[in-house]
Amino acid sequence: MRILYLCHDLDDAAIWRRVAMLQTGGAEVRAAGFRRGSGPLPGDAVVLGRTVDARMGQRAYSVLRALAGLRRSLGHEARPDAILARNLEMLVLARRTRRLWPGDPPGLIYEVLDIHRLMVGEGRRAQAMRAVERALLRGVGAVLTSSPAFISNYFDRYRQTQVPVHLVENRYFEPRATAPNAVGPVRTPDEGTDRAVSIGWFGILRCRDSLACLDALTRARPGRYVVEMRGKPALDVLPRFHEIVAANPDLRFHGPYRYPDDLPDMYTQVDLAWLLDGFDAGYNSAWLLPNRLYEGCRHGAVPIAQAGTQTATFIQALGLGLVVSGPSADELDLALGQLTPGHLARLRELVHAVDPATWTASDLDCRHLVSLVESPIRGLG
Question: Considering the domain 2-177+361-374, what is its CATH architecture?
Answer without folding.
Answer: 3-Layer(aba) Sandwich (3.40)
